[in-house]
């Protein structure tokens, strides 16, 4: 019951926000899980988390390197901009909050317009190596090692099970025909080491083995070919 | 494994198990056994979590999990439970489209009542 209650709460908040904001939620969520850009961690930033500064949330998808390390993305983006603007400000922010609210906003809007390349609001569910992934253009993901793929190879993934844009969803049965996800192989590496320790008690049996599974990092460049498929359109 | 590696793996353990090698060795061996077992359990637990989330999402639309999956299988939609649970959380409109497809393929839910808002009795001022 508790899980359904919380699910109801999150569902209604998602419905209240626009579908773009829902995309916003996905990108933040996946940003945390894929840790796209290595961000410099600065300890003072943790103090600024409880700040609630006014923002235009739709512009500040955290795409640049300085913003991504902090989980509460919208509030902490403003916090990061604050730190950059006023480095000598060591006093508690509550006194200066009204001034801070006015100052960062022009800087934020300028930064957002400078650093925002056109990103299509689209996602796809693609099957690679027997597993399904939700995929966005411009992000990377780790998959099973693709044999025969070298670094900087262009790859086309054909098993596209679902494509979603802001207004329409193309649900494949099982595959969206002629849809293709284009990707570039970035790196062929290994997963972090896992220690496989086998032990039987009282029988003097211990085996200690380390294992690193090979993987491939691919970056998604685009999703194409889904336009002619029968779609479910949002009527709003 | 030598002492240094064992004590490195024993960080965060309770009491003497993080400092004294004879106790740490036992605890670290146990911890590694648990991690071996739990790598297999994690797959089961995650699937159970996904099913709970999909169930919650579909019941908001008046369909329960069993009928929903049956409808998807009938329509030959091969999305797995991980992706379905993510869609149910973050893409509500796409998820509603999936539920509608499933309901039209397998209309099994005649008696399911959509969840009504319960009003807290104590909040009514009389």
UniProtKB/TrEMBL annotation, chain A:
The keyword Membrane does not apply. InterPro entries: bL21-like, bL21-like_sf, Ribosomal_bL21, Ribosomal_bL21_CS. The keyword Cell inner membrane does not apply. Pfam families: Ribosomal_L21p. Residues 1-21 form the signal peptide. Keywords: Ribonucleoprotein, Ribosomal protein, RNA-binding, rRNA-binding, Signal. SUPFAM superfamilies: L21p-like. HAMAP family: Ribosomal_bL21. PANTHER family: 50S RIBOSOMAL PROTEIN L21, LARGE RIBOSOMAL SUBUNIT PROTEIN BL21C. Belongs to the bacterial ribosomal protein bL21 family. This is 50S ribosomal protein L21, chloroplastic.
TrEMBL record, chain B:
It holds the Pfam family Ribosomal_L20. Keywords: Ribonucleoprotein, Ribosomal protein, RNA-binding, rRNA-binding. The keyword rRNA-binding applies. It comes from the Eukaryota. The keyword rRNA-binding applies. Transmembrane segments: none annotated. Belongs to the bacterial ribosomal protein bL20 family. PANTHER family: 39S RIBOSOMAL PROTEIN L20. Binds directly to 23S ribosomal RNA and is necessary for the in vitro assembly process of the 50S ribosomal subunit. It is not involved in the protein synthesizing functions of that subunit. This is 50S ribosomal protein L20.
